[in-house]
Amino acid sequence: MVYNDVLSSTIFVCAGTTGTYHHPAFKVFEVDGGHEDATWVILDATAYSTNLTEANVEGGFPVYTVRYNAQDSYDVKSLTPTSMHELVLNMVTEEGLYDQHYWYVFVIP
């Protein structure tokens, strides 16, 4: 998050590979856009990855599966700077929330 005396924006890091396994990964962002009253706010993000070991067996191919979905996994309504700030504060106070985030980002093969 970016603070210029006040919370001003959120910076998202998009996965190119998974944490410890280094499998290909990507995120798809859902944005409130494309209509007359669009706010262009990022509403949600879903992370996908594939297992290279399985994809590289003879006759194999990459199958991308969902690693996590931000709204479902973190119980947030959107990915606005305010929502992300609240999520970070919750990671400090809610037992297991940061560990869950760490699992999604670094551990899932």
From TrEMBL:
One of its GO terms (molecular function) is hydrolase activity. The keyword Hydrolase applies. Residues 38-107 form the Sphingomyelin phosphodiesterase C-terminal domain. Keywords: Glycoprotein, Hydrolase. InterPro entries: ASM_C (IPR045473). It comes from the Eukaryota. This is Sphingomyelin phosphodiesterase. It comes from Portunus trituberculatus.
